[in-house]
Amino acid sequence: QVQLVESGGGLVQAGGSLRLSCAASGHTFSNYAMGWFRQAPGKEREFVSTISWNGATTVYADSVKGRFAISRDNAKNTVYLQMNRLKPEDTAVYYCAARSGPGAEVGRDYHYWGQGTQVTVSS
Question: How many of the other CB atoms lie within 10 Å of CB of 81?
Fold first, then answer.
């Protein structure tokens, strides 16, 4: 079992930045690819980014490419999502997730999920 706890969400003005963190415990963190997803009110959950177990491979949704950066520190059992040039449409609850094997862009491929952290971007 892997426990995931997100932090770093909050209220920010458009154009600003936030860094989300997701701390993992319970299993060897480096065994897992990690992903970030988000869900806005009234919308389906959507993929944001994923990173391989060693950080060598990253994938981004087109909507965040060039603005967001995913990274991980296996020594700290933590994955990060640096979000720059935020837009009101980035407002959502952001979730981190873990899966064995390579990174994936589909939520149902992930085995473990955090509780989410709210990000609100004002215009």
Answer: 27
Q: Angle at Cα 87 formed by Cα 83 and Cα 89, nearest 5°?
A: 110
The dihedrals phi and psi of 24, each to the nearest 5 degrees, come to: -110, 150
Pairing of strands 46-51, 32-39: antiparallel
Segment 27-49 mean pLDDT: 95
Evaluated on CA atoms 104, 22, 16, 43, the torsion sign reads: positive
- Evaluate whether 46 touches 61 at the Cβ level (below 8 Å): yes
pLDDT tens-digit series, residues 77-101: 999 999 999 999 999 999 999 999 8
Task: Please tell me the predicted confidence (pLDDT) of residue 60.
Answer: 98
Region for 13 from its dihedrals, namely left if φ exceeds 0, alpha if ψ lies in -120 to 50, beta otherwise: beta
Picking from 79, 99, 75, 95, the residue whose alpha carbon sits closest to that of residue 23 is 79
What are the tokens at 38? Answer: 């988000």
Residue 1 has pLDDT above 90, yes or no: no
How far apart (Å, rounded) are the C-alpha atoms in residues 118 and 105?
21
